[in-house]
């Protein structure tokens, strides 16, 4: 599976007043905000992905990374399912072509390993993840902030309700 890419957004001015939040509320808020930003980046990556068969485009997804998340922060990644689209890294980063390639009767590309190229050639990248971050980064950050503005009152109202129930 691909590692995707890492986006770091400076939301310090927005989060300055939220430092007092701890526990489940902080985690729920962080996850909601991260998902909102991640969805923007995922959708942009899908728009930028080459569409020949649509396989790569349909394999791009947003995933929560539990092993890389803790009380200090949550981690999500925008990547592609390498089982559905094993060629994703070739498009994102470019690659050397060592063998002749052809379109078979099935309409798919095939590599003919019986016919190595006399001069291997570099196939340039058609990146989709990195440009998605460049073009949609500010929109992702805005989506995160907007989601935080929506979600925080909901979470605080739920905590107030829980406190009322606990006091009765």
Automatic annotation (TrEMBL):
Matches recorded under InterPro entries: HK97-gp10_tail
Q: Which domain of life is it from?
A: Bacteria
- What is the protein name for this chain? Phage domain-containing protein 2
Q: Name one Pfam family in it.
A: HK97-gp10_like
């Amino acid at each position: 599976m691909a590692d995707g890419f890492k986006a770091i957004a400076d939301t310090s001015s927005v989060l300055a007043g939220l430092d007092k939040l701890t526990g489940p509320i902080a985690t729920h808020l962080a996850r909601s905000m991260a998902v909102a930003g991640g969805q923007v980046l995922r959708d942009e990556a899908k728009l930028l992905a080459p569409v020949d068969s649509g396989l790569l485009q349909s394999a791009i997804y947003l995933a929560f990374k539990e092993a890389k998340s803790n009380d200090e922060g949550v981690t999500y990644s925008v990547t592609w399912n390498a089982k559905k689209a094993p060629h994703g890294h070739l498009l994102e980063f470019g690659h050397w072509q060592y063998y002749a390639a052809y379109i078979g009767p099935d309409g798919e590309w095939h590599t003919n390993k019986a016919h190595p190229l006399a001069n291997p050639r570099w196939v340039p990248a058609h990146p989709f993840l990195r440009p998605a971050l460049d073009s949609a980064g500010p929109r992702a950050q805005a989506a995160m902030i907007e989601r935080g503005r929506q979600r925080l009152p909901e979470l605080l109202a739920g905590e107030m309700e829980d406190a009322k129930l606990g006091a009765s």
